[in-house]
Amino acid sequence: MKKILAMAAAAALTCGVSAYAANPFSDVSAGDWAYQAVTSLSEQGVVEGYPDG
Predict the structure, then answer these.
(1) pLDDT of residue 18
(2) Using the 8-state DSSP alphabet, how is residue 29 labeled?
(3) Closest Cα to residue 39, out of 31, 50, 28?
(4) Which residues contact 27 (CB under 8 A, 6 or more apart)?
(5) Number of folded domains in the chain?
(6) 11 lies in a domain?
(7) Is the residue at 34 inside a domain?
């Protein structure tokens, strides 16, 4: 039972990390000077962006 729980937790964490790996803002590339600030504010829920970029 513990192995199943551990595997489920590992799978959930892996899926969560891959979701954050994708760039939610199509108009801010990883090389932009404000990328870290924008992604940090997005993770904190301060900014959300628009669906069309």
Answers:
(1) 47
(2) -
(3) 28
(4) 53
(5) 1
(6) no
(7) yes
Domain that holds residue 52: 25-53
State pLDDT tens for residues 15-39: 555 445 577 788 889 899 999 999 9
Does residue 2 lie in a domain region?
no
Can you give the pLDDT at residue 45? Answer: 92
Q: Identify whether 10 is part of a domain.
A: no
| 25 within 8 A of 53, measured Cβ to Cβ | yes
Both structure tokens of 34: 């404000």
Task: Return the pLDDT at 24.
Answer: 79
Dist CA 30 CA 45 (whole Å): 19
CA–CA distance, 9 with 18 (Å, rounded to integer): 14
Considering only CA atoms, which of 20, 53, 52 is closest in space to residue 39? Answer: 20
